[in-house]
Design brief:
Deoxyribonuclease I, Chain A, 13 strands, four-stranded mixed sheet, single chain, alpha+beta, 3'-5'-RNA exonuclease activity, 5 helices
Length: 263
């Protein structure tokens, strides 16, 4: 699952639906209903990450820290079910000309942008997968292009199948997304799925009834060898509304038999 849960702000966007105390129970109910093995969050503040972990239960863990210079602020954490998945390694990089410098900014974005990368072994099958989670800039297409190039380089270097999740702030036909799908051969999970988990909703719901013609900015992309049994955007309402201005994207995946990572 990939979900921009919208950061908790001091002032809501002029509507009750944007208040965290209203949204939190909705987020909790959706997560407890779906219980994803892997979850890439965007715009999550530390207290919100703690809330998500509490909602999912003691089996879940998180990797990733704030995007700021001291590791504070919004995170793009990868949350995982540690009973199902063994964490092998992980790292966080700044999406900038200085990827190892926390809080660094380049390429036209005004705010720090990051990615979190983690590798896992499925305890049931022994198969491995690498996951990259990110939140690309909402204003600068140049920043998004440079950022997806960095992501693509990591994809190309991976010895195991790759899953890329995030709020890309771009549609699949945008030039930056085309680089991921054409140059680096990543596939949209929804387009590859054997079955759909629902209507083809846009992901930028803005707390309104989902629309099939709505903007889709959030994606799950997979390596060609990964089988997508089902995928879609979750437009279900909980407690009378939606937990974020973005809807979560979900996929049920099966890793290829031939891909293993030996220690």
């Amino acid at each position: 699952m990939s979900w921009n849960i919208r950061r908790r702000t001091r002032y809501a966007l002029g509507r009750t639906a944007d208040r965290w105390d209203v949204r939190a129970p909705r987020i909790k109910s959706l997560l407890q209903s779906e219980r994803p093995s892997l979850l890439g969050l965007q715009e999550a503040l530390p207290a919100q990450v703690d809330f998500v972990l509490s909602a999912l239960g003691s089996a879940y863990r998180s990797v990733g820290y704030g995007r700021g210079r001291r590791g504070r602020g919004e995170r793009c954490p990868i949350i995982f079910d540690a009973q199902r998945l063994e964490l092998l390694c992980w790292e966080q990089r700044a999406l900038s000309a200085r990827p190892d410098s926390p809080g660094s900014i380049s390429w036209g974005n005004l705010l720090p942008r990051i990615l979190v990368r983690a590798s896992f072994r499925d305890r049931r099958t022994g198969h491995c997968v690498q996951m990259v989670n990110t939140h690309l800039d909402h204003l600068s297409s140049g920043s998004r292009r440079r950022s997806v190039h960095c992501i693509g380089q990591l994809v190309a270097q991976s010895p195991v199948p790759v899953l890329v999740t995030g709020d890309f702030n771009a549609g699949l036909d945008a030039a930056e997304m085309q680089e991921l799908t054409r140059t680096y051969a990543l596939l949209d999970a929804s387009g590859r799925a054997r079955s759909s988990l629902g209507a083809a909703w846009g992901t930028l719901g803005s707390y309104r009834v989902p629309r099939t013609e709505g903007r889709k900015l959030d994606w799950i992309l997979v390596s060609p060898g990964i089988l997508v049994n089902a995928a879609g955007v979750n437009g279900l309402r909980y407690h009378g509304g939606w937990g974020s201005d973005h809807l979560p994207v979900q996929a049920v995946l099966r890793l290829p038999e031939q891909e293993r990572w030996n220690d």
